[in-house]
Every structure is written in structure tokens, then in C-alpha cells.
Design goal:
Order of helices and strands: HHHHHHEEHHHHHHH
Largest sheet: 2 strands, antiparallel
Oligomer: single chain
Number of helices: 13
Helix content: over 70%
Structural class: mainly alpha
Distance between the termini: 82 Å
Number of strands: 2
Amino acid sequence: MIAFWIILTGSLVAVTCGLLGCFLVLRKMSMVGDAISHAVLPGIVIAFLLSGSRETLPMLLGAGATGLLATFLIEYFHRRAGLQTDAAIGVVFTFLFAVGIILISAFAGQVDIDQDCVLYGEIAYVPIDLWVTGNGTVMGPRPVYILSCVLLLVAAFIRLGYKELKLTSFDPAFASALGISTALWHYLLMAAVSITTVSSFESVGAILVIAFLIGPPATAYLLTHDLKRMLAITVALGIFIAFTGYWMAYGLNASIAGCMAVVTGLCFATVFVVQRLARPKISLPAATEATG
């Protein structure tokens, strides 16, 4: 059962992050996930300072609020200051992450905040993070329920806003001409990314969240440019990566999150190499010498 819960958790994170990651890849905003995963640190510290506890709800609220702030600042600097998106992402996430480090060192230095957990996560602890009811009934790992709810919310969001998300991702100018608010759907997408990143952050850590946000969608993009097929391939890849990554870690006695991230990279590299080898070579006619 331990393997089942870990693979299930990895699959839930991979599918949820991958579905949103497809739209980030199409919008050329893949590293927003990296920015949010680092920018939530001051929100976590502030939530602890205000609540005095490390319970899940205040941590999620604090991190979620900071994640939304990060997305707003990125878009604000991009539109108002004329910065390129990647430059705005770099400025915002490094600033907020640094603020979080200062808050930890100044006000929460005596609190047991494991840096390995913050940066890498430990998905192996999922089976022992149990949800126990008031009468003592063990319902199973708590992260599975949280991530399942997030997946359902993300799936409903994509299902209801599929047309708007597709149009604003492929052709924002055409979407605006049809009366669709590109800014509204941008912030809705960023809010969904923030909620997903924060909820996954606690269970698997930032590195694996970023890998799942970018890796499977980028691999699927190499295989197809049809959005529905891209989403389906991303889901299948995410489940495959979670399963294969766990058993690789089991065989090597290595980090589970690390092995899942490695499998993600191997999948992308394999598809890339196969496509390059299968691409037909076009031979150009030899140039003739000029006579005079």
C-alpha cells in the first residue's frame, strides 16, 4: 500500500500540474511555476507568525495569497514597465524568495523549517501523513484528498473555460476582438496555477512541481499541436512518470522526487531524439558553377 499511495500522489500532482502546464507552455510562461514555488515562502512564514502554528490551512492561505501577489506583480511589470515576461519573473520571484529568507532568519529562526522539505519535498512521507477523524477512524493519507479536490477543481476550470483558455493562449488579439477578456483569463489561470503549486508544494516540493508543470506538457508539445491531444498525452505521461519514477527510486534506493524528475527529463529527451532521427532529410540540388 505504501507504493500505491506514493504513486497515486505523484500521479495526482503530475496530472494537475501538467494540465495547467499545457497552457503555460503555449503562452511561453513555463517558468511562472518556478516563480510561484519560490515566491510562496514569505507567505508561509507570515502565516506562521500570524497563526502561531504550522497547520495546513493557514499555510495554504498564506502561500496562496503570496502566489497570487507574485502573478500580479509579474503581469504588472510586464504590461506597465515593458519588461519581458522572463525578466519580470526573475525580478519578482528572487525578491519574494529573498524576503522569505529574511523573515525566517529574523523572526522564525527557532522554528523547525527543513530546507530539504522546502526545496525538494519528501513524497515518501505521504503514507504516514494520515487523516484521522474525531472518532479515531483513519481515512488514509491526507495529501491524497487535498490533491484530488484540487484536480477536480482544475479539471472543472479547464472544462468550463476551454474555449476562452484556448483562444487567449493561441491568439490573444482574436480573443479580444471576440470580446473575451484576456486579462481576466490570465489571472484565472495564474490563480489556478498558484492553488495547484501551493497544494502540491507541501507533499512533493518545488523541484517536482516545476518538473511536472513543464516536462510532460513540453514533451506532449513535441508530439502534437492539437490542444486536446496535448492534454491527453500530458495526462498519460504524468501517470507513467509517477509509476516509473517510483520504481526507479526503489531500485536505486534514491530520492523518489528526484527520480520522477529524472524520468521526466528522459521522456522529453527520448521524444526529442526520436523526432530528430525520424525527420526526413531534404537534399538540396548541388550548385552549378557559373560559366562566363
